[in-house]
Amino acid sequence: MTPISSPSRTDLDALFLQPVRLFIACLLADTSWHPELAVQQALGLPAADLDLHIESLRAAGYLRCRAEPRELRLTPLGLDRLLEHIGALKTVAATAGALVAEVRAALPAESPP
Q1: pLDDT tens, 8-50?
Q2: Is 44 left (phi over 0), alpha (psi -120 to 50) or beta?
Q3: Contact criterion met (CB below 8 Å) for 91 and 7
Q4: What is the dihedral of CA 25, 27, 33, 36, to 10 degrees?
Q5: Residue 36: closest CA among 8, 82, 69
Q6: DSSP letter for each residue of the chain
Q7: What pLDDT score was predicted for residue 93?
Q8: What is the dihedral of CA 54, 55, 57, 60, to 10 degrees?
């Protein structure tokens, strides 16, 4: 069996395990200022829900906000953590795919799919 190579716990970011937060960071990955309304519309979220996710990212230092009209920007720290997280997710997905392929290849030829 193929050895399982797992990313370190520090590569997977707990904040980005919540898909909405991951997508917010992805939308802001150019690190320029974006209207909060544009992010809200892209995600199809109510303002109150988006605010909770923004506050979590802001408190971690991953996101900056500026006032009226409210704009959002990913910080350099946020971009670094986003890229590390995506790299770790790729490792997890590749390992899972390899394991599934190996297990499926080991099935007897007459086994149904």
Answers
A1: 556 899 999 999 999 999 999 999 999 999 999 999 999 999 9
A2: left
A3: yes
A4: -90
A5: 69
A6: -PPP----TTTS-GGGGSHHHHHHHHHTTT-S-EEHHHHHHHHT--HHHHHHHHHHHHHTTSEEEETTTTEEEE-HHHHHHHHHHHHHHHHHHHHHHHHHHHHHHTS-TTS--
A7: 87
A8: 170
Yes or no: say if 82 and 25 are a contact pair by the CB < 8 Å rule: yes
Query: Structure pTM?
Result: 0.84
6-35 per-residue burial string, b: 16 or more CB within 10 A, e: under 16: ebeeebbbebbeeebbbbbbeebeeeeebe
Residue 76: asked if its preceding bond is cis (omega within 30°), the reply is no
The answer to whether 53 touches 17, Cβ cutoff 8 Å, is: no
Does position 3 have pLDDT exceeding 80, yes or no? Answer: no
CA proximity to 24, closest of 92, 75, 89: 75
**Pairing state of beta strands 34-35 and 63-66?**
unpaired
